[in-house]
Amino acid sequence: MFESLAKSKIVADKSFNRWMVPPAALFIHLSIGMIYGFSIFWPGLTKLIGTECAESIGIWERVFTTSCDWLRSDVVWTFAIAIVFLGMSAAVFGHWLEKAGPRKAGVAAAIFWGGGLMITSLGVSLHQLWLIWLGAGVIGGIGLGLGYISPVSTLIKWFPDRRGLATGMAIMGFGGGAMIGMPLGDNLISSYGIAQTFFIMGCIYLTSMTIGAFGYRVPAEGWKPEGWTPEVKKTSAMISSNHVHVGIAHKTPQFWLLWGVLCLNVSAGIGVLSVAKPMFQEIAASSFDPLIIGAIATGFGALLSLSNIIGRIFWASSSDFLGRKLTYAIFFSLGTVLYLLVPWAGLNQYIATFVIITLVILTMYGGGFATIPAYLADIFGTQHVGAIHGRLLTAWSFAGIIGPMLISYLREYQLSQGIPPDQAYNSSFKILALLLVVGFILNLLIKPVNKKFFMTEKQLKVEQATTQSNKEKLVVATTHTNKALQTILLPIAWLVVSVPIGWGIVNALQKGLIIFQ
User: Fold this and answer.
1) What residues does 11 pair with on adjacent strands?
2) Could you report the per-residue pLDDT of 301-348, keeping only the tens digit for each?
3) CATH number, position 265
4) pTM of the predicted protein model
5) Which pLDDT value is given to residue 396?
6) What DSSP element (H or E) covers 261?
7) What is the C-alpha separation between 240 and 377, in angstroms, rounded?
8) Domain residue limits at 117
9) Exposed, middle or buried, 445 (CB in 10 Å: 0-12/13-18/19+)?
10) Number of folded domains in the chain?
11) Helices and strands, number each (H, E), in the chain
């Protein structure tokens, strides 16, 4: 089994159908994408004991207390920690993944994410916040990072003719994971409780991610789609035909400009996602029956997840024609206007308008994630795009603290000043709009990489030889595809991932459309 995880054992031959790889990526990303649905746990986690004494003791006392409930900002830290470790693990293991291969990284991701949720289950049972932070935050976060980057460079290499579409397919499941996981989690919580829900979902995700990991295959060196010929002449100065080494990329101004672009785009969207359900319940409290608003809020979260997944495919595919720079310019300019409109819609109780605005915002949030790997491939070349992408995701780590904490702590401050709960988020949205203005400026400053940073032809050949070990080993290791079996498995693989996605979409629409009635 361990030998079958090696990269040299999963090199596909010419008969392999590249459309077998996206379902494998979706198995993993639909699992780890549940991190975006964690807001369904916050209300219950702050009412486990039934005694509100947390405000009278310090944060470090609350980490170990078993006598009173935690504050919402305490449990939201779980989400922030998970995103921090997602970015850190992606940066640390990105270069290792290029050598070890996506299958080994996928299996490791399954163990960390599934195991982390099981540890979280124990933390809930014992009412130990530090165990929740360790399980879903630290250990689970490492699993998120490994799972997130596992398919990116692989799919870019399988789809050199459509980089944006490839990266959109690679990570669209991360945006849709909450769309499936939130209603599933809600049902499990009502039937078994929060602790048991974490354990059950950990088992489910461990299994599905392992299946996905064993579906990964990598193309042989020099492979290209049948009938496709790369354009000799570049269509844009922003698309490089050369390559930058991962050890050099961070020395270029382009890397840090893209780091800032991703960080600011993520900070804005992730703040909304981290508190989606309770935020909607507070803003729309006067517009719905208290008995059903919880279910409607879950539907709102599911709609956000649907927008996230649509944005990852739509914007990433559109960027193949618009260009990455123009695509990000749209994100920041349109996003700024929409974030400024959110407080107006909430204040006037235009709930349907509020929902539509946030849905459009979330398409651009997801689109930003799906477009950034292709942006990196354009700027730095494809040889080290997976490792460079991993390092750039440290911007996500930083944003994972800024966005959620800005909204959570500013909300608590506003409430302490006597601001009504339905208006406690207004200042946060205005600040998030300001972040997008800065992001727009940074995106404008991105130019092609200076030629001095590119690898020479000799360096590239040495790097390719090192990455692939040696040609003789590669040929021996290349597996032979059973065409008849592949013909059967291809529709089955797509059906298996399409069923939960379809169920999630139907469920999201059923619950979410109540908002517009």
Assistant:
1) 218
2) 878 888 888 888 888 888 888 989 999 999 999 999 999 998 898 888
3) 1.20.1250.20
4) 0.80
5) 84
6) helix 253-274
7) 8
8) 18-225+234-516
9) exposed
10) 1
11) 22, 0
